């Protein structure tokens, strides 16, 4: 198996598939701030134990706010074009469940290039709980899936996850900074082999490997 990258000119352009493409500058900072505030709201709703009258009042406010925000909606499939320091264009969905800055459901995980792949930090709030005090395994897998897929994309080989294996070595704690790393380990025709891990305080909590199948051009 060999690790190869391809020139930018050969990378698929999402616009060719009919998707709307926007740049980072097109996302107003006010939207990022709103999404962050709503993450706090979700965490508060998940944990609140206030009186029923307060719950009814809060629901009314959130209902009114939902109506205001729905006045103008972005297409779900909108793609974000990011210019990396190396000037290679990278693409991701704006409303990405794991890394979407404007998606309040996303933790969000943001990744940066390292010598051999990508690395990022993320903290999962109590809203991502599975067992008491620990992250839900599905979300641990989602962090790895995103990082592994992004590592293939950052290496010039964007694709879809065909197979994902996750080993859970320790519980992944909530409300603690986690580091996520991923890299390409090999290629075979359209298959891109990737591996990665999540660490808390340097201790590996979960490892993952995946096969990404490159988009057929
Ligand atoms: C843009 C960059 C940033 C993106 C970051 C996003 C991260 C998030 C990643 C995701 O969550 S992706 C969403 C979850 N994945 C999917 O929804 C994929 C659904 N499956 C498919 O669409 C197709 O099955 C797939 C594109 C993966 C493969 O179909 P193809 O018809 O294009 O491929 P084909 O069947 O010809 O197989 C190509 C190679 O992959 C191999 N392969 C296919 N499925 C496999 C599988 N499940 N396990 C192992 N190998 C598999 C297959 O054997 C073959 O290997 P060989 O070259 O050795 O012959």
From TrEMBL:
InterPro entries recorded: HotDog_dom_sf, THEM4/THEM5_acyl-CoA_thioest, Thioestr_dom
Limits of the Thioesterase domain: 133-205
Keyword Transit peptide included in the entry's annotation: yes
The keyword Signal is annotated on this UniProt entry: no
Protein topology in the membrane: Peripheral membrane protein
Enzyme Commission designation: 3.1.2.2
UniProt entry keywords in alphabetical sequence: Apoptosis, Cell membrane, Cell projection, Cytoplasm, Fatty acid metabolism, Hydrolase, Lipid metabolism, Membrane, Transit peptide
SUPFAM superfamilies registered for this protein in UniProt: Thioesterase/thiol ester dehydrase-isomerase
Cellular compartment(s): Cell projection, Ruffle membrane; Cytoplasm; Membrane
Pfam families: 4HBT
Reactions accelerated catalytically: (9Z)-octadecenoyl-CoA + H2O = (9Z)-octadecenoate + CoA + H(+); hexadecanoyl-CoA + H2O = hexadecanoate + CoA + H(+); octanoyl-CoA + H2O = octanoate + CoA + H(+); tetradecanoyl-CoA + H2O = tetradecanoate + CoA + H(+)
Chief location category: membrane
Domain of life: Bacteria
Enzyme class: hydrolase
Record-linked PANTHER family: ACYL-COENZYME A THIOESTERASE THEM4
Similarity remark: Belongs to the THEM4/THEM5 thioesterase family.
Protein name: Acyl-coenzyme A thioesterase THEM4
Source organism of the structure: Salinactinospora qingdaonensis
Taxonomic classification: Bacteria, Bacillati, Actinomycetota, Actinomycetes, Streptosporangiales
